[in-house]
Amino acid sequence: MINYTSEKQLELFDFKTPFNSELSLDNRWIKLSHIVPWDKFANIYISNMSTNGRPGVNPRTVLGAMIIKSICNLDDRGVIEAIQENVYMQFFVGLKEFTTKPVFDASLFVEIRKRVGSDLFDKLNVELIKSCSSTSKTNKKKSYSSDKDEGDDDIYNVKSEEIILPNKGEMQADATVADQYITYPTDSKLLNSSRKKLEEMIDFLYNKTDKTEVKPRTYRREMDMGFLSYSKKKKKAHKTHRRMNRKLLTCLKRNLKHVEQFQEKGLSNDVFLSKKHKGLLEIIKVIYDQQSHMYDNKVNRIDNRIVNLHQPHVRAIPRGKQKSQVEFGAKLGVSLDNGFTRIDTFSWDAYHEGSDLKKQVNSYKSIHGYFPKLVLVDKAYSSSDNRKWLKERGIDITAVPLGRKSILHKSHYQKAKRKKEFARRNHIEAKFGQGKNGYNLNKIRAKLKKTSESWVACIFFIMNLINYQKVKPFELIFECFLKIEFTLNNIFRIKYYVRRYNIWNYAEI
Protein backbone atom coordinates (compact mmCIF):
# COMPACT_ATOMS: atom_id res chain seq x y z
CA MET A 1 0.00 0.00 0.00
CA ILE A 2 1.35 3.42 -0.97
CA ASN A 3 0.52 6.48 1.09
CA TYR A 4 0.87 9.62 -1.05
CA THR A 5 -0.66 13.09 -0.94
CA SER A 6 -0.91 14.90 -4.24
CA GLU A 7 0.29 18.47 -4.54
CA LYS A 8 -3.23 19.45 -5.61
CA GLN A 9 -4.66 18.14 -2.34
CA LEU A 10 -2.22 19.90 -0.01
CA GLU A 11 -2.60 23.63 0.61
CA LEU A 12 -0.72 25.82 3.05
CA PHE A 13 -3.90 26.97 4.80
CA ASP A 14 -4.95 23.37 5.43
CA PHE A 15 -1.66 22.52 7.15
CA LYS A 16 -2.18 22.00 10.89
CA THR A 17 0.31 23.56 13.28
CA PRO A 18 0.96 22.56 16.91
CA PHE A 19 1.32 26.17 18.08
CA ASN A 20 -1.94 26.00 20.02
CA SER A 21 -0.39 23.42 22.37
CA GLU A 22 2.41 23.94 24.88
CA LEU A 23 6.05 23.60 23.89
CA SER A 24 7.82 20.43 24.96
CA LEU A 25 10.07 20.75 28.01
CA ASP A 26 12.30 17.99 26.61
CA ASN A 27 13.43 20.10 23.66
CA ARG A 28 17.17 20.89 23.69
CA TRP A 29 16.66 24.62 23.19
CA ILE A 30 14.22 24.81 26.12
CA LYS A 31 16.74 23.04 28.37
CA LEU A 32 19.61 25.21 27.22
CA SER A 33 17.61 28.41 27.74
CA HIS A 34 17.53 27.73 31.50
CA ILE A 35 21.32 27.34 31.62
CA VAL A 36 22.65 30.33 29.66
CA PRO A 37 23.57 33.35 31.87
CA TRP A 38 21.48 35.82 29.87
CA ASP A 39 21.47 38.65 32.44
CA LYS A 40 25.25 38.61 32.95
CA PHE A 41 25.83 38.72 29.21
CA ALA A 42 23.31 41.55 28.79
CA ASN A 43 24.96 43.67 31.49
CA ILE A 44 28.39 43.39 29.87
CA TYR A 45 27.03 43.78 26.34
CA ILE A 46 24.95 46.87 27.13
CA SER A 47 27.93 48.53 28.85
CA ASN A 48 29.76 48.56 25.48
CA MET A 49 26.85 50.23 23.65
CA SER A 50 25.87 53.85 23.29
CA THR A 51 22.66 55.13 24.85
CA ASN A 52 21.96 57.45 21.89
CA GLY A 53 20.44 56.57 18.52
CA ARG A 54 18.05 53.82 17.52
CA PRO A 55 17.39 50.93 19.93
CA GLY A 56 19.75 48.02 19.38
CA VAL A 57 19.08 44.31 19.04
CA ASN A 58 18.05 42.45 22.19
CA PRO A 59 21.24 41.09 23.86
CA ARG A 60 19.52 37.73 24.38
CA THR A 61 18.82 37.56 20.66
CA VAL A 62 22.48 38.36 19.93
CA LEU A 63 23.87 35.65 22.21
CA GLY A 64 21.19 33.15 21.22
CA ALA A 65 21.94 33.57 17.52
CA MET A 66 25.68 33.05 18.11
CA ILE A 67 24.99 29.88 20.11
CA ILE A 68 22.66 28.49 17.43
CA LYS A 69 25.27 29.25 14.76
CA SER A 70 28.00 27.24 16.51
CA ILE A 71 25.83 24.32 17.64
CA CYS A 72 24.20 23.81 14.23
CA ASN A 73 27.31 24.76 12.17
CA LEU A 74 25.39 27.27 10.04
CA ASP A 75 26.53 30.31 8.13
CA ASP A 76 25.26 33.80 9.01
CA ARG A 77 22.30 33.70 6.61
CA GLY A 78 21.46 30.14 7.59
CA VAL A 79 21.15 31.13 11.26
CA ILE A 80 18.57 33.83 10.52
CA GLU A 81 16.59 31.46 8.28
CA ALA A 82 16.67 28.69 10.89
CA ILE A 83 15.34 31.04 13.58
CA GLN A 84 12.53 32.12 11.25
CA GLU A 85 11.46 28.48 10.78
CA ASN A 86 11.85 27.07 14.31
CA VAL A 87 9.51 28.04 17.12
CA TYR A 88 11.85 26.61 19.78
CA MET A 89 14.74 28.72 18.49
CA GLN A 90 12.56 31.82 18.63
CA PHE A 91 11.78 31.11 22.28
CA PHE A 92 15.49 30.53 22.88
CA VAL A 93 16.49 33.94 21.47
CA GLY A 94 13.90 35.70 23.64
CA LEU A 95 10.90 36.30 21.33
CA LYS A 96 7.51 36.34 23.03
CA GLU A 97 5.55 34.94 20.08
CA PHE A 98 6.16 33.19 16.78
CA THR A 99 7.00 35.44 13.83
CA THR A 100 8.13 34.92 10.26
CA LYS A 101 10.21 38.12 10.22
CA PRO A 102 14.01 37.89 10.58
CA VAL A 103 15.30 38.79 14.04
CA PHE A 104 18.02 40.98 12.44
CA ASP A 105 19.93 41.25 9.21
CA ALA A 106 22.61 38.60 8.64
CA SER A 107 25.25 41.22 7.82
CA LEU A 108 24.98 42.48 11.41
CA PHE A 109 26.87 39.37 12.62
CA VAL A 110 30.18 41.03 11.73
CA GLU A 111 29.50 44.08 13.91
CA ILE A 112 28.24 41.83 16.72
CA ARG A 113 31.48 39.84 16.74
CA LYS A 114 33.49 43.06 16.78
CA ARG A 115 31.50 44.36 19.75
CA VAL A 116 31.47 41.14 21.77
CA GLY A 117 35.10 40.06 21.42
CA SER A 118 36.81 37.26 23.32
CA ASP A 119 36.98 39.04 26.69
CA LEU A 120 33.24 38.92 27.21
CA PHE A 121 33.06 35.15 26.65
CA ASP A 122 36.02 34.68 29.00
CA LYS A 123 34.10 36.49 31.75
CA LEU A 124 31.10 34.23 31.16
CA ASN A 125 33.33 31.15 31.31
CA VAL A 126 34.70 32.29 34.67
CA GLU A 127 31.16 32.73 35.99
CA LEU A 128 30.26 29.19 34.89
CA ILE A 129 33.33 27.73 36.62
CA LYS A 130 32.61 29.67 39.81
CA SER A 131 28.96 28.63 39.88
CA CYS A 132 29.94 24.95 39.71
CA SER A 133 32.67 25.29 42.33
CA SER A 134 31.29 24.19 45.67
CA THR A 135 33.74 26.35 47.60
CA SER A 136 33.92 29.45 45.40
CA LYS A 137 31.78 31.48 47.79
CA THR A 138 33.72 30.49 50.91
CA ASN A 139 37.21 30.78 49.41
CA LYS A 140 37.28 34.56 49.11
CA LYS A 141 39.85 36.62 50.99
CA LYS A 142 39.12 37.00 54.69
CA SER A 143 40.62 39.40 57.16
CA TYR A 144 43.08 38.07 59.73
CA SER A 145 41.53 37.35 63.13
CA SER A 146 43.52 38.18 66.28
CA ASP A 147 41.97 35.33 68.29
CA LYS A 148 43.33 32.51 66.08
CA ASP A 149 44.91 29.42 67.63
CA GLU A 150 48.66 29.25 68.12
CA GLY A 151 48.98 26.13 65.95
CA ASP A 152 47.48 27.77 62.89
CA ASP A 153 50.67 29.55 61.76
CA ASP A 154 50.90 27.30 58.69
CA ILE A 155 47.38 28.24 57.56
CA TYR A 156 47.27 31.96 58.25
CA ASN A 157 49.54 34.45 56.53
CA VAL A 158 49.78 37.47 58.84
CA LYS A 159 51.62 39.66 56.32
CA SER A 160 49.03 39.35 53.55
CA GLU A 161 46.13 39.13 56.04
CA GLU A 162 44.34 36.38 54.16
CA ILE A 163 43.69 32.68 54.60
CA ILE A 164 45.98 30.36 52.64
CA LEU A 165 43.98 27.27 51.75
CA PRO A 166 45.60 23.91 50.99
CA ASN A 167 46.03 22.86 47.38
CA LYS A 168 43.06 21.06 45.94
CA GLY A 169 41.84 19.77 42.57
CA GLU A 170 43.43 19.12 39.21
CA MET A 171 44.14 21.29 36.19
CA GLN A 172 45.02 20.17 32.67
CA ALA A 173 46.86 22.47 30.28
CA ASP A 174 47.73 22.21 26.61
CA ALA A 175 47.93 24.26 23.42
CA THR A 176 46.18 23.98 20.07
CA VAL A 177 45.63 25.99 16.90
CA ALA A 178 42.29 27.33 15.66
CA ASP A 179 42.86 27.01 11.92
CA GLN A 180 41.62 29.75 9.63
CA TYR A 181 39.59 28.51 6.66
CA ILE A 182 42.09 29.61 4.00
CA THR A 183 43.77 27.93 1.07
CA TYR A 184 47.13 26.32 1.79
CA PRO A 185 49.58 29.21 1.28
CA THR A 186 52.49 29.05 -1.14
CA ASP A 187 54.75 31.84 -2.37
CA SER A 188 53.51 31.58 -5.94
CA LYS A 189 49.82 31.64 -4.92
CA LEU A 190 50.37 34.68 -2.72
CA LEU A 191 52.27 36.58 -5.41
CA ASN A 192 49.70 35.71 -8.08
CA SER A 193 46.74 36.89 -5.98
CA SER A 194 48.63 40.13 -5.24
CA ARG A 195 49.24 40.60 -8.97
CA LYS A 196 45.55 40.27 -9.77
CA LYS A 197 44.59 42.80 -7.09
CA LEU A 198 47.05 45.31 -8.50
CA GLU A 199 45.56 44.82 -11.95
CA GLU A 200 42.10 45.61 -10.50
CA MET A 201 43.48 48.82 -9.01
CA ILE A 202 45.06 49.83 -12.29
CA ASP A 203 41.74 49.27 -14.11
CA PHE A 204 39.89 51.28 -11.46
CA LEU A 205 42.30 54.23 -11.61
CA TYR A 206 42.44 54.25 -15.42
CA ASN A 207 38.65 54.35 -15.72
CA LYS A 208 38.60 57.40 -13.44
CA THR A 209 40.88 59.35 -15.80
CA ASP A 210 39.95 61.01 -19.10
CA LYS A 211 41.55 58.03 -20.99
CA THR A 212 43.60 60.26 -23.26
CA GLU A 213 46.76 58.30 -22.52
CA VAL A 214 47.46 54.69 -23.38
CA LYS A 215 46.59 52.22 -20.66
CA PRO A 216 49.78 50.73 -19.14
CA ARG A 217 50.50 47.14 -20.07
CA THR A 218 50.29 44.48 -17.37
CA TYR A 219 50.74 41.32 -19.52
CA ARG A 220 47.91 39.70 -17.60
CA ARG A 221 46.99 37.20 -20.31
CA GLU A 222 50.52 35.85 -20.60
CA MET A 223 50.83 35.61 -16.82
CA ASP A 224 47.45 33.90 -16.44
CA MET A 225 48.40 31.26 -19.00
CA GLY A 226 51.86 30.85 -17.51
CA PHE A 227 50.57 30.42 -13.95
CA LEU A 228 47.90 27.97 -15.14
CA SER A 229 50.48 25.75 -16.83
CA TYR A 230 52.70 26.01 -13.74
CA SER A 231 49.92 25.00 -11.34
CA LYS A 232 48.97 21.99 -13.50
CA LYS A 233 52.40 20.39 -13.10
CA LYS A 234 52.23 17.58 -10.57
CA LYS A 235 55.96 17.54 -9.83
CA LYS A 236 57.74 20.88 -9.82
CA ALA A 237 61.49 21.20 -9.63
CA HIS A 238 63.18 23.86 -7.52
CA LYS A 239 64.14 25.79 -10.66
CA THR A 240 60.50 25.83 -11.76
CA HIS A 241 59.43 27.47 -8.49
CA ARG A 242 62.13 30.12 -8.71
CA ARG A 243 61.37 30.88 -12.36
CA MET A 244 57.67 31.40 -11.60
CA ASN A 245 58.38 33.53 -8.53
CA ARG A 246 60.82 35.69 -10.51
CA LYS A 247 58.18 36.42 -13.15
CA LEU A 248 55.56 37.25 -10.52
CA LEU A 249 57.93 39.53 -8.61
CA THR A 250 58.70 41.37 -11.85
CA CYS A 251 54.97 41.87 -12.49
CA LEU A 252 54.41 43.11 -8.94
CA LYS A 253 57.23 45.63 -9.22
CA ARG A 254 55.91 46.96 -12.55
CA ASN A 255 52.27 47.12 -11.37
CA LEU A 256 53.19 48.87 -8.12
CA LYS A 257 55.00 51.49 -10.18
CA HIS A 258 51.91 51.99 -12.40
CA VAL A 259 49.66 52.44 -9.36
CA GLU A 260 52.00 55.03 -7.84
CA GLN A 261 52.10 56.97 -11.12
CA PHE A 262 48.29 57.00 -11.32
CA GLN A 263 48.05 58.26 -7.75
CA GLU A 264 50.53 61.06 -8.42
CA LYS A 265 48.60 62.17 -11.50
CA GLY A 266 45.27 61.83 -9.74
CA LEU A 267 46.06 64.32 -6.99
CA SER A 268 44.91 67.20 -9.20
CA ASN A 269 41.92 65.31 -10.60
CA ASP A 270 40.73 63.83 -7.27
CA VAL A 271 41.34 60.24 -8.40
CA PHE A 272 41.94 58.14 -5.32
CA LEU A 273 41.75 54.49 -4.37
CA SER A 274 39.03 53.27 -2.07
CA LYS A 275 39.75 52.56 1.60
CA LYS A 276 39.72 48.80 0.95
CA HIS A 277 42.16 49.11 -1.96
CA LYS A 278 44.49 51.33 0.08
CA GLY A 279 44.68 48.70 2.80
CA LEU A 280 45.39 45.95 0.26
CA LEU A 281 48.05 48.11 -1.42
CA GLU A 282 49.99 48.48 1.83
CA ILE A 283 49.81 44.73 2.44
CA ILE A 284 51.01 43.99 -1.13
CA LYS A 285 54.01 46.25 -0.62
CA VAL A 286 54.99 44.28 2.50
CA ILE A 287 54.46 40.99 0.63
CA TYR A 288 56.69 42.19 -2.21
CA ASP A 289 59.46 43.20 0.19
CA GLN A 290 59.31 39.89 2.06
CA GLN A 291 59.20 37.71 -1.05
CA SER A 292 61.99 39.69 -2.73
CA HIS A 293 64.20 39.26 0.33
CA MET A 294 63.61 35.50 0.41
CA TYR A 295 64.18 35.17 -3.35
CA ASP A 296 67.39 37.19 -3.40
CA ASN A 297 68.89 35.51 -0.34
CA LYS A 298 67.57 32.02 -1.22
CA VAL A 299 65.92 31.49 2.18
CA ASN A 300 62.49 30.16 3.08
CA ARG A 301 61.97 32.00 6.36
CA ILE A 302 61.37 35.60 7.41
CA ASP A 303 59.93 37.25 10.53
CA ASN A 304 56.23 38.24 10.49
CA ARG A 305 55.71 36.49 7.19
CA ILE A 306 52.33 37.18 5.58
CA VAL A 307 50.67 34.02 4.27
CA ASN A 308 47.29 35.38 3.14
CA LEU A 309 46.50 38.62 1.33
CA HIS A 310 43.06 39.16 2.89
CA GLN A 311 44.07 38.00 6.39
CA PRO A 312 47.54 39.47 6.98
CA HIS A 313 47.37 38.74 10.73
CA VAL A 314 47.50 34.96 10.16
CA ARG A 315 50.89 33.35 10.75
CA ALA A 316 52.35 29.90 10.23
CA ILE A 317 52.38 27.94 13.52
CA PRO A 318 54.83 24.99 13.57
CA ARG A 319 53.13 22.03 15.27
CA GLY A 320 55.07 18.93 14.28
CA LYS A 321 51.93 16.78 14.07
CA GLN A 322 51.75 13.70 11.91
CA LYS A 323 48.87 15.09 9.88
CA SER A 324 50.29 18.59 9.37
CA GLN A 325 53.69 19.96 10.31
CA VAL A 326 52.47 23.56 10.09
CA GLU A 327 49.05 25.05 10.83
CA PHE A 328 47.75 28.51 9.96
CA GLY A 329 45.67 30.31 12.55
CA ALA A 330 45.69 31.49 16.16
CA LYS A 331 47.59 29.54 18.79
CA LEU A 332 45.58 28.97 21.97
CA GLY A 333 46.90 28.22 25.45
CA VAL A 334 43.97 26.40 27.08
CA SER A 335 43.40 25.10 30.61
CA LEU A 336 40.80 22.51 31.65
CA ASP A 337 39.17 22.69 35.09
CA ASN A 338 36.50 20.13 36.03
CA GLY A 339 35.40 19.82 32.40
CA PHE A 340 35.40 23.60 31.78
CA THR A 341 37.87 25.04 29.28
CA ARG A 342 39.31 28.53 29.37
CA ILE A 343 41.53 30.32 26.85
CA ASP A 344 44.42 31.79 28.84
CA THR A 345 46.55 32.87 25.84
CA PHE A 346 45.29 33.95 22.42
CA SER A 347 48.25 34.60 20.12
CA TRP A 348 48.53 34.98 16.35
CA ASP A 349 52.29 34.45 16.54
CA ALA A 350 54.10 31.21 17.32
CA TYR A 351 55.37 30.87 20.89
CA HIS A 352 56.40 28.15 23.33
CA GLU A 353 53.37 26.96 25.28
CA GLY A 354 55.46 26.18 28.36
CA SER A 355 55.46 29.90 29.21
CA ASP A 356 51.67 29.73 29.82
CA LEU A 357 51.82 27.42 32.85
CA LYS A 358 52.43 30.05 35.54
CA LYS A 359 49.65 32.26 34.22
CA GLN A 360 47.24 29.32 34.02
CA VAL A 361 47.96 28.20 37.59
CA ASN A 362 47.50 31.76 38.90
CA SER A 363 44.19 32.01 37.00
CA TYR A 364 43.08 28.78 38.68
CA LYS A 365 43.85 30.31 42.08
CA SER A 366 42.06 33.57 41.28
CA ILE A 367 38.87 31.61 40.55
CA HIS A 368 38.94 29.02 43.35
CA GLY A 369 41.06 30.71 46.00
CA TYR A 370 43.68 27.94 46.15
CA PHE A 371 46.29 26.33 43.92
CA PRO A 372 45.64 22.99 42.21
CA LYS A 373 47.10 19.91 43.85
CA LEU A 374 48.11 18.34 40.52
CA VAL A 375 48.88 19.82 37.11
CA LEU A 376 48.46 17.45 34.16
CA VAL A 377 50.64 18.56 31.24
CA ASP A 378 52.94 17.15 28.57
CA LYS A 379 56.71 17.46 28.16
CA ALA A 380 56.54 20.96 26.71
CA TYR A 381 55.50 22.34 30.13
CA SER A 382 57.99 20.37 32.24
CA SER A 383 60.92 22.78 32.07
CA SER A 384 63.23 23.17 35.06
CA ASP A 385 61.94 26.70 35.70
CA ASN A 386 58.30 25.52 35.78
CA ARG A 387 59.20 22.54 37.99
CA LYS A 388 60.93 24.81 40.50
CA TRP A 389 58.03 27.30 40.50
CA LEU A 390 55.46 24.54 41.09
CA LYS A 391 57.55 22.87 43.80
CA GLU A 392 57.71 26.11 45.79
CA ARG A 393 53.92 26.11 45.89
CA GLY A 394 53.51 22.42 46.64
CA ILE A 395 52.00 21.53 43.26
CA ASP A 396 52.68 18.14 41.68
CA ILE A 397 53.22 17.75 37.93
CA THR A 398 52.82 14.73 35.67
CA ALA A 399 56.31 14.69 34.25
CA VAL A 400 59.24 12.31 34.32
CA PRO A 401 61.74 13.35 37.04
CA LEU A 402 64.95 14.94 35.82
CA GLY A 403 68.31 13.21 36.18
CA ARG A 404 69.07 9.53 36.50
CA LYS A 405 66.39 6.97 37.21
CA SER A 406 65.85 6.20 40.88
CA ILE A 407 67.18 2.87 42.15
CA LEU A 408 64.26 2.61 44.56
CA HIS A 409 61.64 0.13 43.47
CA LYS A 410 58.17 1.58 42.94
CA SER A 411 55.18 -0.38 44.12
CA HIS A 412 52.40 -1.55 41.84
CA TYR A 413 50.08 1.08 43.36
CA GLN A 414 52.52 3.92 42.59
CA LYS A 415 52.95 2.77 39.00
CA ALA A 416 49.20 2.42 38.46
CA LYS A 417 48.56 5.85 40.01
CA ARG A 418 51.18 7.48 37.78
CA LYS A 419 49.74 5.80 34.71
CA LYS A 420 46.21 7.02 35.51
CA GLU A 421 47.47 10.58 35.99
CA PHE A 422 49.08 10.56 32.54
CA ALA A 423 45.87 9.11 31.07
CA ARG A 424 43.70 11.84 32.61
CA ARG A 425 45.65 14.44 30.62
CA ASN A 426 43.86 13.13 27.53
CA HIS A 427 40.69 14.90 28.68
CA ILE A 428 41.91 18.22 27.31
CA GLU A 429 42.84 16.53 24.02
CA ALA A 430 39.25 15.27 23.87
CA LYS A 431 38.02 18.85 24.32
CA PHE A 432 40.08 19.93 21.34
CA GLY A 433 38.58 17.08 19.33
CA GLN A 434 35.09 18.10 20.42
CA GLY A 435 35.69 21.67 19.28
CA LYS A 436 37.23 20.75 15.93
CA ASN A 437 34.96 17.85 14.99
CA GLY A 438 31.71 19.11 16.50
CA TYR A 439 31.94 22.90 16.22
CA ASN A 440 34.47 23.49 13.38
CA LEU A 441 37.17 24.98 15.57
CA ASN A 442 39.60 24.15 12.75
CA LYS A 443 37.52 26.05 10.15
CA ILE A 444 37.26 29.64 11.37
CA ARG A 445 35.62 31.57 8.53
CA ALA A 446 35.86 35.09 9.97
CA LYS A 447 38.25 37.36 8.07
CA LEU A 448 39.06 40.06 10.59
CA LYS A 449 41.33 39.56 13.57
CA LYS A 450 38.80 40.55 16.24
CA THR A 451 35.89 38.67 14.67
CA SER A 452 38.00 35.51 14.51
CA GLU A 453 38.84 35.84 18.20
CA SER A 454 35.15 36.25 19.03
CA TRP A 455 34.28 33.21 16.89
CA VAL A 456 36.80 30.98 18.69
CA ALA A 457 35.82 32.22 22.16
CA CYS A 458 32.15 31.55 21.43
CA ILE A 459 32.93 27.90 20.57
CA PHE A 460 34.69 27.35 23.90
CA PHE A 461 31.82 29.05 25.73
CA ILE A 462 29.30 26.71 24.11
CA MET A 463 31.35 23.64 25.08
CA ASN A 464 31.33 24.93 28.66
CA LEU A 465 27.57 25.45 28.49
CA ILE A 466 27.07 21.83 27.47
CA ASN A 467 29.27 20.64 30.32
CA TYR A 468 27.43 23.01 32.68
CA GLN A 469 24.12 21.53 31.57
CA LYS A 470 25.32 18.07 32.53
CA VAL A 471 26.71 19.05 35.93
CA LYS A 472 24.43 21.76 37.31
CA PRO A 473 21.04 19.93 37.44
CA PHE A 474 22.51 17.22 39.67
CA GLU A 475 24.02 19.83 41.98
CA LEU A 476 20.66 21.59 42.27
CA ILE A 477 19.02 18.33 43.36
CA PHE A 478 21.66 17.09 45.76
CA GLU A 479 22.04 20.43 47.51
CA CYS A 480 18.54 19.77 48.88
CA PHE A 481 19.64 16.39 50.28
CA LEU A 482 22.65 17.98 51.99
CA LYS A 483 20.30 19.91 54.28
CA ILE A 484 19.29 18.24 57.52
CA GLU A 485 15.67 19.31 57.39
CA PHE A 486 13.69 17.50 54.67
CA THR A 487 10.80 19.90 54.52
CA LEU A 488 7.88 19.73 52.12
CA ASN A 489 9.36 22.73 50.31
CA ASN A 490 12.54 20.83 49.50
CA ILE A 491 10.61 17.83 48.19
CA PHE A 492 8.66 20.03 45.78
CA ARG A 493 11.91 21.69 44.77
CA ILE A 494 13.46 18.31 43.89
CA LYS A 495 10.42 17.36 41.82
CA TYR A 496 10.63 20.68 39.97
CA TYR A 497 14.25 20.24 38.94
CA VAL A 498 13.73 16.61 37.94
CA ARG A 499 10.89 17.66 35.64
CA ARG A 500 12.60 20.83 34.39
CA TYR A 501 15.91 19.21 33.42
CA ASN A 502 14.56 15.74 32.65
CA ILE A 503 17.21 14.09 34.84
CA TRP A 504 16.20 10.46 34.40
CA ASN A 505 16.01 10.58 30.61
CA TYR A 506 18.68 13.16 29.82
CA ALA A 507 19.48 13.89 26.17
CA GLU A 508 22.70 15.68 25.23
CA ILE A 509 22.81 18.55 22.78
How do the strands and helices of this protein lay out in sequence?
Blueprint: H1 28-33, H2 38-47, H3 59-72, H4 76-85, H5 87-92, H6 108-132, E1 156-157, E2 162-163, E3 170-179, H7 187-208, H8 220-232, H9 238-269, H10 275-297, E4 315-318, E5 326-337, E6 340-347, H11 357-368, E7 374-376, H12 384-392, E8 396-397, H13 412-424, H14 426-438, H15 449-481, H16 488-501
Account of the protein in words:
This protein has 509 residues and is of the alpha/beta class. It has 3 domains: 25-106, no CATH class; 128-140 and 165-181 and 329-402 and 411-470, Ribonuclease H-like superfamily/Ribonuclease H (Nucleotidyltransferase, domain 5, 2-Layer Sandwich), CATH 3.30.420; 187-297, no CATH class. The chain is built from 16 helices and 8 strands. It has helices spanning 28-33, 38-47, 59-72, 76-85, 87-92, 108-132, 187-208, 220-232, 238-269, 275-297, 357-368, 384-392, 412-424, 426-438, 449-481, 488-501; strands at residues 156-157, 162-163, 170-179, 315-318, 326-337, 340-347, 374-376, 396-397. The strands form 2 sheets. Strands 3, 4, 5, 6, 7 and 8 form a 6-stranded mixed β-sheet that branches. Strands 1-2 form a two-stranded antiparallel ribbon. It is globular. The protein starts with 27 loop residues before the first helix and ends in an 8-residue tail after the last helix.
